[in-house]
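In response to the reviewer comment on reproducibility (Comment 2.3), we provide here a single inverse folding case reported in full, input and output, so that an independent group could reproduce the run without further information from us. The structure tokens appear first.
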């Protein structure tokens, strides 16, 4: 088996990560997790390669000592992930490395192919088939991918105990609990967000892709019922959910602000100065 062909060069390995949109992360929790993990492993001396979607990651060959490989895909809701995953699997199959780390359950559908050549760690970040944006056929595909994910990698991990318990009950298989970390940051002042009419402790904050399962509509409805003396700030945008985003934006008012995706100092200031952060996801 490929698992027995791990080459031990001292304590250092060549690790290839696939399954995410890419790095540096602009949006997406999986992308942020891959960025943090790959950069930290590179700092420890490992050689790390991340396979990225060419439309997501700007043209570059390296980011923070992490090797970047940009592969094409079709920017279409149902084909984007599948095509990029297949190309990634073919790429790693002809390359030399010590370990392939597949992020997310659906890309793990290609694990049997990759295992022919390399050891594979697969990490579950959630259950895509529970998201309302997917139709019946894709949800069926996602459930099949879950079975492949839990049965075929060298090792499975999951970012929550809830997911670990679910896999144990449903498949009688163990996924190791490896939670995502948080990088502590010093709070910053409200200067970057004053352009939106916001100040310290003057608003409730939601940050995330605008998907029904992340609960932004629930938060807006609750806000309108409670009517606190605070603004509601929604940060994020569509993820193949343009119709849902348009429906939400009809709720925009002087007190309910939609800021789209925000990054860097502005996002840091939004987190630092909110009175309350709310993330009413139904599946996370």
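Designed residues, in position order:
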């Amino acid at each position: 088996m490929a698992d027995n062909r791990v080459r031990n060069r001292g304590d250092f390995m060549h690790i290839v990560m696939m399954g995410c949109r890419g790095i540096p992360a602009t949006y997406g929790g999986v992308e942020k997790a891959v960025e943090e993990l790959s950069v930290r492993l590179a700092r420890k001396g490992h050689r790390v390669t991340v396979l990225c979607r060419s439309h997501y990651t700007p043209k570059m060959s390296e980011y923070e000592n992490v090797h970047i490989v940009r592969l094409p895909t079709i920017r279409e809701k149902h084909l984007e992930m599948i095509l990029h995953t297949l190309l990634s699997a073919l790429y790693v199959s002809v390359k030399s490395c010590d370990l392939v780390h597949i992020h997310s359950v659906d890309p793990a559908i290609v694990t049997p192919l990759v295992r022919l050549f390399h050891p594979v760690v697969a990490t579950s970040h959630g259950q895509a088939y529970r998201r309302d944006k997917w139709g019946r056929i894709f949800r069926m595909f996602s459930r099949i991918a879950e079975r492949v994910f839990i049965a075929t990698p060298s090792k499975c991990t999951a970012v929550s105990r809830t997911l670990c318990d679910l896999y144990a009950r449903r498949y009688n298989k163990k996924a190791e609990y490896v939670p995502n970390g948080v990088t502590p940051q010093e709070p910053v002042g409200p200067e970057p967000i004053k352009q939106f009419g916001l100040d310290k402790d003057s608003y409730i904050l939601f940050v995330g892709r605008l998907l029904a399962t992340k609960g932004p509509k629930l938060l807006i409805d609750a806000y309108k019922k409670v009517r606190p003396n605070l603004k509601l700030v929604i940060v994020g945008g569509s993820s193949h959910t343009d119709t849902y985003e348009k429906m939400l934006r009809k709720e925009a008012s002087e007190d309910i602000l939609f800021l789209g995706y925000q990054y860097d100092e502005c996002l840091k200031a939004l987190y630092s100065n909110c009175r309350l952060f709310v993330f009413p996801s139904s599946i996370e």
